[in-house]
What we know:
The structure holds two protein chains of two kinds.
Chain A: E1 2-8, E2 14-21, H1 35-55, E3 63-70, E4 73-79, E5 85-90, H2 95-113, H3 127-140
Chain B: H1 5-15, H2 22-39, H3 44-70, H4 78-94, E1 99-101, E2 109-114, H5 131-134, H6 140-151, E3 154-162, E4 171-180
Antiparallel strand pairs in B: 1-2, 2-4, 3-4
Helix pairs in contact in B: 1-4, 3-6
Amino acid sequence: MSFYLAIIGTKDNAVYELEFGTYRQGGDGRPRFSADMKQLCPFIVHSSLDILEEMQWNTSVMHLKVIDKFYNYLISSYITAGNIKFLLLHETRADDVIRQFFMDLYDLYVKTLMSPFYSVDQPITSAVFDQRVKMLAKKYL
Amino acid sequence: MSRTPRQIGEEVWKTRVEKVNAELVTLTYGSVVAQLCKDFGNDYIQVNEQLDKMGYNIGIRLIEDFLARSNTSRCRTFKDAAEIVSKVGFKIFLNITPTVGNWSQDNKQFSLIFDENPLADFVELPDDGKAINELWYSNILCGVLRGALEMVQTQVEAQFVSDVLRGHETTEMRVTLIRILEDEMPVGDD
C-alpha cells in the first residue's frame, strides 16, 4: 500500500511532497507505485485542488476526509488555518488514522513556521522535517 | 536572608520582575535576526557585528535596571562577577541559569554553557551553507554582556564558541576579562 503526501501553499505552489509505503502488516515503508502512477501522482493531487477549494467554504472543520477518487485511489485532505493544504493519495479508507496523521503533521508544520528564516509558501527542504514526517508515517500509516 | 547568587536570582525573579510571553520574545528576536540577514544580503559576519552592537546598546542600559532590581553589592573578584551574571543576571531577564565553567588558569576566562536558549526556540538556520558556518544566532547576548560589564568598570570580550543551531553539542559563550577600568580623566581637561 503506497501513499503520496503533498503540502500545497497558499498560491497553489508545492511546499513539500513525499512518497512512502505502509509500515503495517510487515510493509517496509517503500512506495510501490507503478511507473505511470509515479508520474501521475502530482497531477492527480493537484487536480483535486479545485474540489478542495470549493468544499472548503462549505465546511467548518479542518479535516475534509476523502474529496476525490481516481480509479482505485482516494485523495484525502486537510486544510490549515493559514490556507495551507495537506493532500494524501492513498488506496484504502482510513479516515480516523489519516485525521490523526494530518493533525500531527499540522503540529510539525507550525513548528517549521515558527523559525524566523522560514516564510509562508517557501518549500520545506529541512532534512529534520523530512525525517519527522517519515516517523509520523511509520506511526500512523 | 538571600545569600547565594542563586537564591538572590530566584527571589528577584519571583517578586520584582514583570513577566512577558516567552514566545513573543522569541518571535520578536527571530524577526530581528531574519530582517538583519535580509538587509545585509546574507552577510552573516556583518549580521554578527550588528547583533553585537545592538546588544552593547542594550547592555549599557540594562545594567542600571539590573542593579536597581537585584541590589547586589560590588563583586570582589571576576569569579564572583561570573556567578552573579549567570545566576542573577540571566535569571532575571531570561529566566535561565547558564552554567559557569571552563575557567582558565589565570582566572581571566570562563565559559557560559546554555542548556536552554529561549531566543532560539524552534529556529532552523537557513540552508544556504553559509549560515551554519558563519552566523552566531544569539550574538546579541555577547553584546549585552560586554556593555553591561563595561558600565561596572570591567572590560570583557564575549564570543560564542559553539551553538546547537549550528549542530554542536552545546551552546557555549567564552568570556574573557581584558582589564578592570580605572576612572580616567577625560582627555584635555587640564
